[in-house]
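Note to self: keep these together.
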Amino acid sequence: MPRKKTSTKPSGDEIVRTRKSAAKALGVTERTLATWPRESWWPADAVEKDARGRRTNWNLTKIRAAIEGHGRKGSGKSKLATRIKLAQERQKLKRMRIATRREERQDLIDSGKLLPREEYTAFLSECVTVCRDQILALPKHLAKLVTGKKLRGKLQVEGDVLVRRALDALADAITKPPA
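Structure:
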């Protein structure tokens, strides 16, 4: 009469005698099951060893609990663990890309091919200020070309109003974020 391959201990633990039976019951390959006892998550009392050091009496209840607790193959947590790991890898890759871009930008600055942002901003600010001052002076210069004090004064005042409106509109357009 063949021996029974699965037994139950009085504690309610399900026990199988061979690695092949355990692998089949757990839905993994024998090779996978052979490597698991070397993992840190593996419970020390999940399998007994005989006098020659061979693994016998695989405790399926304890192994299943360890699998579920650590997101191993065959557990519901394995998909979640995989998604978390992928998200972490994407974040790490994103940080690496940002660091690479910073290094490339710094290399361009060091080689003189690119201005640092502060210098660029100061240069643009100075250009805008010079242009603004020259545009504000236009009505005064145009008024000098017109004869007659009354017309000259009116041209200067109205020109000044139009220029200021145009500059205000330009300032609003520059400060608004693009749509």
